[in-house]
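Hi everyone, sorry if this is the wrong subforum. Our group has a chain we'd like a structural model of before ordering constructs, and none of us has done structure prediction before. Sequence below.
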Amino acid sequence: MEFGNYLYEPKKVEGFDFDVYRLKPETGRRGTPQSDMWNNIAVFGDNVSGRAHPEWISESARGRGVRGNNQYNLHWDILCPTVQEFRAEQLDYIEKTAEETNQPIFLNSWHFADHGHCTCDRCNKLWKKSGLDWFEWRNQTITDFIKDVKDRVKTKLVLAVLPDPANADQRFGMDHKELYKLCDAFNIVMFSQNYATSWYWEMIARAFRRIFPEKPVYSNLYVCGPGDDPNNCPPVEQLIRVSVRVMRTGIDGIIYLADVADNMVKFQKAVTTKGEYRDSLSDYGGQAALDLFNRWDKIVK
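Answer:
Right subforum, don't worry. Here is the predicted structure as tokens:
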């Protein structure tokens, strides 16, 4: 079992087994690769590149893949995955990051924006030329990109998968069976500002444990993000409970996301004040999460 600290700044936090730096988040801004942390790169979700090249943004009958298109749940601009210039630059960037740091590469936003994307002229031409069914072509397009990444990255390759175990192929071009052959570990993006319905998150974790049976699977839980009002972040009791519930599904760990190290430490401190509540979950079957929290009792002041 492993537990990770996942931040928008390159700082490690005591009490975790590994640390992840959001080197290039979906804002598109790039930091400095870290040689003692996993480096996280958002590929096609890229506001900077979307502003510089609006013609690269993914298209659909329901509108473009941009923030503000309420036909979709988009929080950033998403580029078309068949823009060869951008695709090649990202492959070079990912490869260089792995070579410079010798650390795992953790990819986000490496897929199509959502169902119906992308219908730009370039995608339509490539699809028709392929002779494949629309969904088959989308799956192959994304799988081929990840194959290219795997050919270049000699360190551990971790994919962030969106929490849709049933429809990810038709929505995002995610062929779980093919991706399972290529990647070393998988991270289920389970971000929410409320984890009150913990059985729902447990169900998703259990489904992905079945989809990826013999490779590490992590659940990605949300502590707080940039600009969040603390009052709108998940209560600590909910985070404790959902941690225990997902860990009883047989997954291999949890990666907790916060904006900065100070807020991650605040979360740890809050957990240490909830000993009685944690004890009430001792028979739930998620002992690995409780062991993590017990570890924090000894180091967090």
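For your construct planning: The mean pLDDT is 97. The two ends are 24 Å apart (CA to CA).
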